[in-house]
Amino acid sequence: MSEYRPAQMSMMLTSVLEQAVPELLEQHHRYQEDQLVEFLAKYYPEIPGTLRGPIVAAATLGAKRVALMHVHAEKNALSGDTKKKQMAAEAASSLSFWALGMRSPFRSASLGELVS
Q1: CB-based contacts of 74: which residues, under 8 Å, 6+ apart?
Q2: Domain range holding 93?
Q3: Mean per-residue pLDDT for 90-103?
Q4: CB-based contact 16:47 (threshold 8 Å)
């Protein structure tokens, strides 16, 4: 019998990650990968061990990217340079869309119907 490998994460794991990742990013006193993996193991044991390292890497890299975009948007929004001001507006726009988070497709879209 072959091993079961779901195509998507379970709703339960997604729910756990919605709690674990923000708490993980608040661990400023232990900001090394092994310490953060240990944190997940201790407080979120339902996250499989093989996923903890990738979750730490993805969460911290995502946080770094968002922080850089925020700084870019804030520091260049009032620039006298038109190109810098435009880039700041685009960074702010990206941040606004990222704030929406992941969205699941509508059921009607999977059935080939138009969603109005």
Answers
A1: 88
A2: 11-101
A3: 92
A4: yes
